Amino acid sequence: MKFVTNILDFLLQQCSAFNFCLCLDTQVFYLLLEFQRMEEGNSSLQSLIPSSGGGGENLGKGNQKREIKQEVKKQLWLAGPLIGVSVLQYSLQVISVMFVGHLGELALSSASLATSFATVTGFSLLLGMGSALDTLCGQAYGANQYRLLGVYMQRAIFVLIIVSIPLSVIWAYMGSILVCMGQDPEISMEAQLYARWMIPSLFAYGALQCNIKFLQAQNNVFPMMLSSGITTLFHILVCWLLVFKSGLGSKGAALSNAISYWINVVLLMLYIKFSPTCRKTWTGLSKEAFREVIDFLRLAIPSAVMVCIEYWSFEMVVLLSGLLPNPKLEMSVLSISPSIFFMVLLFQDLLITIILSTSVNTMWMVYMIPFGLSGALSTRVSNELGGGHPHAARLALYVTFVMTVAVGAAMGLITILVRKVWGCLYSNEEEVVKYISTMMPVLAISNFIDGIQCVLSGTARGCGWQKICAFVNLGAYYGVGIPCAILFAFVFHLRGEGLWLGIICGLLVQVLLLLIITLRTNWEQEAKKARDRVYDSSIPIDMAS
């Protein structure tokens, strides 16, 4: 029971950080009001800030502060629960690995390796494909075509289930793949066993993401935060029973992931079916969900490429760190990165990985702030464009952009201020502590830029720019970021710092290209495209809207 108490303490720490994020965000709108006073004197911002003229959407100078304040409230209403959902879903995998850690080093190594491989080859792909609903459901809801949301969700679930079948085959033979990659055979085969028991979670995860996007498009985010909270608490009990009481061991932890994901799916589906708030958007199963699948894939595949290209580039940094002169030190320090906790175990540097795992969770929370704002922005932009309100969509972008810059600057400053004591919290080795202190400013810059790209990527999802953004990400990370990382680390001998500087170069290129696209956007034209996307569907449309 002491171990379960430690799990609950871990969740409370996550919630404390989550509350800090919300408190920080609620102060930002005062900065927005000050920033608005600079509007007339700063012509470079005119493409983002809604003008005071323009027909039926004239905000009026006297109403601008009120409009900004209302938009901030809308953003926080969405972003807060979205951050909570992300934290709770992330906690499921962490809790499972924590339970497995009490079974021995082999069990922990194999479970962590399997989880990492599953994330790279499965979960990230489904997450990306599901994000196509940010565009489709969001714009349909804004256009008052509520019935389309249910059809889009069913279509997405159908496609993601089909995609999960070949992915499950890859998971089933994970061990052979890992051995071919040069991993330890014993750990690889144990990882394969863990992955096979986790296959049902793959199908549940796809359905869960579709449910979340369906509700998010309707600005109905608190039910999914509640269901995620219930699922996480239940997950602790399920893990304890299956790992320690049933005799399944690590296989029980893998199975508990699947059970918990399916519980979350069932809770959300029951809410969608019986809640009055979803009466217009969920009208039951429809054969129309099996139509226009190719059109959905045209948006879903670029969406997946957007996510996977960025995600895999961070994982590649860890692989490159294994080629440096002191790989244990480099991988230990690079594990502070918010996305690569499990990948470090590919190199069996188990002890330092465990020491730094809490550091990973903390840094991951920094990323969750812009991640939540990005989800809120994609919803706001898609809703307003679908409703034919281009200036409101532009205002949403403006507000979120300034909030992200303000929060990113504050968190970056905190990161730099604690750089000399941060490493001491997790390691007694002087070399590791010193190296972490030199890396913290680099990570602060990385998190700041990554926050901005989160906002711009959220705008892209809301507008339906997934295809062009996929090419942007491909060029930024693999044309600039990874080559620069190799150059800085191995030619200029900057080691781990050089690897991360390369990623920053890729982020800068990505942000600059997305910013250029955003600044050159004709929002009236985007609103027209959104309406055309909704009304071009072969599904019967409510013309009264």
UniProtKB/TrEMBL annotation:
The lineage of its organism: Eukaryota, Viridiplantae, Streptophyta, Embryophyta, Tracheophyta. It comes from the Eukaryota. Belongs to the multi antimicrobial extrusion (MATE) (TC 2.A.66.1) family. The keyword Transmembrane applies. One of its GO terms (molecular function) is xenobiotic transmembrane transporter activity. GO terms for biological process: xenobiotic detoxification by transmembrane export across the plasma membrane. PANTHER family: MULTIDRUG RESISTANCE PROTEIN. Keywords: Membrane, Signal, Transmembrane, Transmembrane helix. Residues 1-17 form the signal peptide. It is found in: Membrane. The chain crosses the membrane at residues 76-100, 106-127, 156-174, 194-212, 224-243, 255-272, 293-314, 334-357, 364-383, 395-418, 471-492, 498-519. It is a multi-pass membrane protein. This is Protein DETOXIFICATION. One of its GO terms (cellular component) is membrane.
